[in-house]
Queue: 3 jobs
Job 1
Amino acid sequence: MWTRTVAWLDALYFGPVVRTLRGWFAEFSHLVLPSDCVGCGAEDHVLCPRCRTALRAATVRPYRAEAGAESLPLIGGSLEEVLPVVAAGRYRRELSQAVLAFKNHGRTDLAAVLAPALAAAIRTAAAPAAGRPILLVPVPTRAASRRRRGYDPLDLLLRRLQRQRLLPPGMEVRRLAAVRTPWRGQLRGLLGASSQKSLGRSGRRRNVAHSMRLRRGAEGTVAGSACIVVDDVLTTGATLAELTRVLAAAGARVEAGVVLAATTAPAGAASAAPQPQPRA
């Protein structure tokens, strides 16, 4: 009974009517209480002209970012190829500040700045597909995180890309995965589960291992489909690996990953070496 009630409240709160009202309220609040630039603190700017220019320069050339993300899965028939991941930019300076403010500080006004960067990375990853059907599958968000923020950051960006028709031809956003909520997971949530950013590399892998499942009713649409998985920030790749596991178990073919930003690979990693394009 409690689970059904929570699901109903979530569906209502994140439904189109309430989402529109929240958007209007956010825009009104920004007019009444102007925000400061998240990069330098300049008054009355989402991003001041200087920081906006710097962010655009940082995301003008999406790049292959899988080097150093040691938890990414192996793909392909022989399981010898690491999942290729395209990042819009490196997680530093203006881009990291914008992503952090957008995710954790309610700065949904930054969606207009971040969405084009994500669109460029998606187009780069999807280029080898040459217009054939492909599913863009976002990493699911925990219900507790959605309630705390009042929105799903990744979903907000993807809906904006859909409305503005910035996705490549033949691509369709499909929310195929969900976060598992066993009793142990609910207890961890009540006690304060560890967030990914507070964990080391091995801890990140353990934290997300078998934490996702396929959504009910999605089984028939997954088998045989080509997919690109998408997340906000790439660190170790553990989250993308878990989503890839769920989709592959259902018969999908995961071809690449996309992120808004990627952390710098450890010293000595071949991140600066030329990388091949994601396979077709």
Job 2
Amino acid sequence: MIASTYEGPADLRAMQELCSRLWSPRSRWHVGDLAWGRFQHTGREHEWPTRLWRAGGRTLAWGWVQPPGSLDLAVDPARPELAGEVLEWFAGLVPGERSVTVLETEEHLAAALRGAGYRPSDDGPFFTHLVRGLDGLPEPAPPPGFRLRAVDEARVPGRVAVHRAAFHPSRVTEESYRAVRAAWPYRADLDWIAETPDGEAAAYCLVWLDEARRVAEIEPTGTLPGHRRRGLARAVCLAALRAAREAGAEHAVVYPRGDDAYPVPGRLYRSMGFGPVARTVTWVMDGSGGA
């Protein structure tokens, strides 16, 4: 077994390989999550301690620390003991309060967290994993005069402006978005915007395709505040999902908030035929080392 520190894009691909190999509707990570999370902001690499565990040329586990004290991780269920090693590494980096979020269906991770003294928390937000097959997608129906199209280089500034307005305050910039566009497995034909009759970007949807698993992920989507409640998010998501189906996807996943504090995205995706398969659970450790 070799444990090594993350050094660059080749290691990200190794992390994505594990996610793709493990993917099912009941697993947490899609390859697009890692690409979007790693490249949407520039200059943050020093904030993200990341470690990989490998054997026989395959990645079997990884851990990615997010400030101030949360951990993302993936562990092959065939090697559940590695979850304990990832948690030990995390504790060495963050000796105080810390948290780990996993999907409720990842029983091997829940067992490791319980054994390490973590407890599940009912406080704070959680996310619901929604899935649908891509047969029978409705036709996109944007408002009259609006156009749906894939993002090209000329439309990057408008695409970034919509994201920054939809997720204000945001650290996404044109520079970081071009890094996203250069990352595997980004595809420009799966990155869509809705334009006003004047050519202004008003909404967007980025879809990531795992070709090996034939599953697409929506991550992220957003609408300018002044254009909300006009059906633009639904229309642009459907356009991007239809493009993913043409590219070979058979299913799609999306992870909206599931708690009552931010219900609109979940209602949108359910109206498009997505249904729940699992939710996230956050496990916590207090600063004394006890749950």
Job 3
Amino acid sequence: MKLEKITKRLRAARKDPTARSYDDACGTAHALDLIGERWALLVMRELMFGPKRFSDLRADLPGISANVLTQRLERLEEIGALRRRKLPPPAASHVYELTPWGYEIEPALGVLGRWAARSPRHDPTLPLSAASLMLSFKTMFDASRAKGLNARIGFRIGDETFLVHIHGGACDAARQSLDGADVIFAGPATAIAAAVYGGAPLGALEAKKALAIEGDRALAERFTGLFPLPPKA
């Protein structure tokens, strides 16, 4: 029933001369009809680790205008990929969160990220959000390099905290408290990415006050070597 309602809305939208559609039955074409507009997929990326307020999304996507963000949120809610809800008192603010179907796009984000990392035009020095960094760990993780490792690595990035759990050849990441973390990286996502993907020595980043490390130093060093980038195309 819900799918029928979405289909009817999409058909109605195609009657609007300003609406765009590939008019193609291919699932890939339909996916682009749904989330192919600029910023739509990145909005979903930012919600992969839980709900966020409008202001948080704008902060994590500094290039997007308030008007465009509003349009994308409305569109994603219309197709059933996210929902808007009001937090209970004392917060009483609205947040946006992905629906179960919205979360199902995570594997596609990983495949796209790994594919694009092979592009010679990819610039890893551009701004990077915390959510993007956490997803990259799940995407680039090399289980063979983590053999026998069972560890919890914490990250304090701005006002957010994340915990990455490496165990049994898997890499899980969640936005949660840092209780039980064996080591904690504190700093901007770009500095952490510089250590993990750019080969920047941890000591050099600490000396520049770009990064702080708390806890098991040897584990921190090992962690940075678990995510080799794929070769350029």
